[in-house]
Design a protein that fits this description.
Layout (H helix, E strand, L loop, with lengths): L26 E4 L23 H17 L3 E4 L17 E3 L2 E3 L11 H11 L5 E2 L11 E3 L4 E5 L6 H10 L3 E5 L12 E5 L8 E4 L6 H10 L4 E2 L2 H4 L7 E2 L3 E5 L3 H9 L3 E5 L2 H4 L10 E2 L3
Parallel strand pairs: 1-2, 4-5, 7-8, 10-11, 13-14
Antiparallel strand pairs: 1-15, 3-4, 6-7, 9-10, 12-13
GO molecular function, one term: amino acid binding
Organism: Prauserella shujinwangii
Keywords: Hydrolase
Length: about 290
């Protein structure tokens, strides 16, 4: 199995008995962290007194981008803007399903201007169905597409009313989930989709149960009885902020327990260093907006 961090995934499972995981080619939009900084506090991970190494952040981001390309995925880049240090976290700036684009409206005023830069990028690149939300909506930070429905987080950033707006504008069923731990302030810090649903198989997800309300845990257990339940030690290093193409799963290098869990399921974990970006509360998924045409 792939090993980006000199970690061996040891299992007792016969490799021949593992399910065949088939990757699908993805299209991503990313933003280089040229102006990355931690200048304010809008989540529990941010500390302006802790030094930030922009060059190291660029190196980590570049490895992530190049890893996507190595797996055959298409990666577009948007030009970063001075004064917007969190623009690197592109996932918060749009949700794209069947070519329809629902933009973002940020809760924190420090990030508000990002939404217009991403809106313009989509318009300039030929997307005709681009709608900006009227409710606070932090896009793929709180929206996860399973292939059949849109899982929608609330509790800290995205307004509950934004879930109904997303259903109306994107034309897909939406399932609301409540986050209760401020460390996991976006859905993409607490859950990610490992394999999208197909005509013959349901979606598979990984999530941290402790991040959700009791009712939301029951909903997730009912919808995904075969989910990978992420342990707190892995969640606390942004293990749930992973990216999967159906086989290859990009994770922070510290999430080794989760990597072992996924390897047993037949996935190929790829561990990358995102430690500098985590200083602002971000990981692989935060840096990655998926374009679904």
């Amino acid at each position: 199995m792939r090993n980006e961090a000199t970690h061996t995934f040891e299992t007792m499972t016969d490799a021949s008995a593992l399910p065949a995981r088939v990757p699908t080619t993805r299209h991503y939009l990313m933003c280089p962290p040229r102006y990355f900084a931690v200048e304010y506090v809008i989540n529990p991970w941010m500390d302006p007194d802790e030094p930030v190494d922009v060059d190291r952040a660029m190196e980590q981001w570049t490895v992530l981008r190049d890893t996507y390309r190595r797996f055959g995925h298409e990666v577009d880049e948007i030009e970063p803007q001075p004064g917007l240090p969190d623009m690197v976290f592109a996932a918060n700036s749009g949700t794209v399903i069947d070519g329809r684009v629902l933009g973002a409206r940020f809760r924190a005023p420090q990030r508000a201007a990002e939404a217009e830069h991403f809106r313009r990028w989509f318009v300039e690149h030929g997307y005709r169905e681009v709608t900006m939300p009227t409710k606070i909506n932090e896009a793929e930070g709180d929206f996860a597409w399973t292939g059949r429905e849109l899982l929608a987080g609330t509790g800290f950033r995205t307004d509950p009313d934004a879930h109904a707006e997303a259903q109306e504008l994107l034309g897909v069923p939406v399932v609301s989930l409540r986050l209760t731990d401020p460390r996991y302030y976006h859905l993409d810090t607490a859950l990610f989709v490992l394999a999208e649903a197909t005509d013959s198989a349901p979606a598979q997800v990984a999530y941290n149960p402790a991040a959700f309300s009791a009712g939301s845990r029951r909903v997730l257990a009912r919808m995904f009885p075969d989910a990978v339940l992420v342990r707190e030690a892995d969640a606390a290093v942004f293990g749930c902020n992973g990216i999967s193409d159906g086989r290859n799963v990009i994770l922070p290098r510290e999430a080794r327990g989760l990597a072992d869990q996924l390897a047993v399921r037949g996935y190929e974990p790829v561990l990358l260093d995102i430690s500098e970006l985590r200083k602002a509360g971000g990981g692989p998924k935060c840096c990655t907006l998926e374009i679904r045409k």
